[in-house]
Specification:
Chain lengths: 410, 213
């Protein structure tokens, strides 16, 4: 008999079976097994047991488990989760900048539509009142949409540093406030829009903290792009494309907006249709991010018509956000072709994809500021002021510049 | 447990082929908010995670709900993954913790006591798939195998929940000890000895039947 006792031998069964024993100890164990019937018998049983375990097949999970998980995630509509998903430096600034730009564009359209007649502003009080009432209604609706989204976002968010937020707001606010008051409303608003873009450019440059705005840097207006960034984007696109290929990709040149319009019931009302729509959105987004302006336009148009409660709307919101970050020019160009209502829908969707309450608040504040800039006419100024009065009060650093009302509304 | 530097484990190569994106590639997409990518990740892991859940709670309906909850927890914590381990290890860790918690919860509520009075997992049905069929087996051998797989399953289920979890990871799913150790946050040596004890326990339970073979 060797120096190993029965218990020691049996303690080594697993190691021996898995080939982990070497050298002297292995030799001792084999000698023991050769001489001890009891341990040899136990080892045979042990080996048989492990072999039987290896034959047990895995149970099959219930069908549609992944889809059920995806569905639950989409139903949650808690952008706080998004905040945790997305690395802070990547999305924070550019999304806001683009969102503010989109709001500015929308506001410009409104101002241009309320064009000032040559004979003077508001020939009659009735006409002015009508205009004010319409504007009031529009702003209330818009406020409701944005605040609804804000409510959804009110819990579980990652909170940014207050001073960084305040600094950002202060910077944008100062630039807007510095606009000469003598300019026409449209000019002022257009300049405000370009301010957003300028700030974006600044932040992409020396002003940007390390790691910020990689996507903004890759926008067409900023040609310099590092190899690492290009490689990362290419890798990412490859993943998206692979995924898209797996999930019944639509035909090349397919227009997701057109497809949706033609078969709304199928794409919104059936699981297969929803899956197909999501797949098409992903493919279109990949192409749009690769510079396909037609696909960008299609996605933006889809954003204008897709109901907010559609199962695919979350995905579209996220992809529009990516588009706004990665292909800002194409996004804004596509937005410019839409009607006011459609623009509002897209902006609402884009705001929905902004994952931080403060970021949303910022967009709303900027929207208010831009609306205030067209207050060259006292009646309008008072009307806008009344509408804004009910909005949630903002911290001092975020407050829009005061609206000048040189004379009473009546 | 041996700590590997983060750079050493950048990608999960367990599923990587020329055609399919790796776990970490899909994971990164999901981290950026793509629910479609997360669904892909779920599909890739659902069988493995469902089986961990099933072997711990021993009820297919509970395991189904639990698996969904596990993946929702994975989604909620995507931002916390720091690439210090493989994606699969990280998911396994969440799965085992969730499943053991659920098991404790069910046990406190007397679920297993009530169930032992009935016929076990009602949704399980005929346990025909528990062992792989032998292609050339005759009817008598097949009957023996059917009996054997019922016994193996029953005795496996009779082990303690942590032993079931360990044997599921190691012997049913073939995970390396190192990955199990990382998933359970235990030293590798501890994992090895616990798995050995669980196997010995199962051997004792099966020995009467196996000796009659």
């Amino acid at each position: 008999m060797t120096r190993l006792d029965h218990q020691s031998v049996q303690d080594l069964f697993s190691s021996y079976l898995e080939g982990d024993l070497v050298g002297e100890i292995r030799a001792d164990l084999e000698v023991h097994l050769g001489e001890c019937d009891s341990c040899r018998d136990e080892f045979a049983l042990f080996r048989h047991t492990v072999s039987l375990l290896g034959e047990v097949e895995l149970e099959s999970p219930p069908a549609g488990l992944a889809e059920a998980v995806g569905e639950r995630l989409r139903k949650k509509k808690r952008p706080g989760w998004l905040r945790r998903l997305i690395p802070r430096p990547v999305i924070r600034i550019p999304v806001e900048v683009v969102a503010v730009g989109a709001v500015a564009l929308f506001a410009v359209t409104i101002v241009k539509k309320i064009s000032v007649p040559e004979g003077g502003l508001f020939d009659s009080k009735r006409e002015a009142t009508r205009e004010v009432v319409a504007l009031n209604k529009e702003l209330r609706k818009d406020r409701a949409v944005l605040e609804d989204r804000d409510e959804e976002a009110s819990s579980g968010f990652y909170d940014y540093g207050a001073e960084r937020e305040a600094a950002k707001e202060g910077k944008l606010g100062d630039r807007v406030a510095s606009l000469p008051s003598s300019r026409s409303a449209a000019d002022a608003l257009e300049e405000s829009g370009s301010i957003a873009a300028n700030i974006g450019a600044e932040r992409a440059g020396e002003d940007a903290p390390l790691g910020f705005d990689a996507r903004l840097k890759s926008a067409p207006s900023v040609p310099a792009k590092t190899e690492a960034e290009s490689g990362k984007k290419a890798d990412k696109d490859a993943v998206v494309l692979k995924r898209a290929r797996k999930q019944s990709a639509p035909a090349a040149g397919s227009d997701v907006y057109k497809n949706y319009i033609e078969q709304k019931d199928y794409f919104s009302g059936t699981p297969e249709g929803q899956e197909s729509l999501r797949s098409q959105i992903q493919v279109a987004n990949t192409k749009a991010l690769g510079g396909d302006a037609a696909q960008a336009g299609s996605l933006v148009r889809l954003g204008a018509v897709l109901p907010p409660d559609d199962p695919s709307s979350d995905l579209l919101a996220i992809d529009l956000r990516r588009l706004a970050e990665g292909e800002e020019e194409a996004f804004v160009a596509a937005l410019a072709e839409l009607s006011e209502t459609e623009q509002k829908n897209v902006v609402a969707l884009l705001v929905r994809a902004l994952p931080v309450r403060k970021a949303r608040r910022s967009v709303i504040n900027q929207y208010q500021t831009l609306q205030g800039q067209k207050a060259s006419q006292p009646l309008q100024a008072r009307a806008i002021s009344n509408v804004l009065k009910g909005l949630e009060s903002s911290p001092a650093a975020e407050a829009p510049p005061p609206i000048e009302t040189s004379k009473p509304a009546r | 447990m041996v700590d590997r530097p983060a750079e050493a484990i950048e990608e999960d190569d367990s599923r990587r082929t020329g055609e399919e994106p790796s776990d970490i590639e899909i994971f990164r997409e999901a981290q950026e908010g793509c629910i479609g990518a997360f669904e892909m990740l779920v599909r890739r892991f659902e069988k493995r995670i469902y089986n961990v859940a099933y072997r711990i709670v021993l009820d297919s309906e509970e395991a189904s709900d639990l698996t969904q909850d596990i993946f929702l927890a994975v989604y909620r914590n995507l931002g916390k993954f720091r690439a210090e381990s493989k994606v699969s290890t990280w998911i396994y860790r969440i799965a085992v913790n969730h499943a053991l918690n659920r098991h404790r919860h069910l046990k406190r509520r007397g679920y297993y006591r009530r169930r032992s009075d009935s016929e076990g997992d009602p949704a399980r049905g005929e346990a025909g798939a528990a062992l792989r069929p032998e292609p050339d087996s005759n009817p008598e051998d097949e009957a023996i195998r059917r009996e054997l797989r019922d016994i193996v399953r029953k005795e496996l289920d009779a082990l303690k929940e942590d032993q079931r979890a360990l044997l599921t990871l190691r012997d049913l799913q073939g995970l390396p000890y190192e990955e199990i150790a990382r998933a359970l946050d235990l030293p590798e040596g501890t994992v090895k000895s616990r798995i050995h004890r669980a196997r010995m326990e199962l051997k004792s339970r099966l020995s009467g039947w196996l000796r009659d073979q």
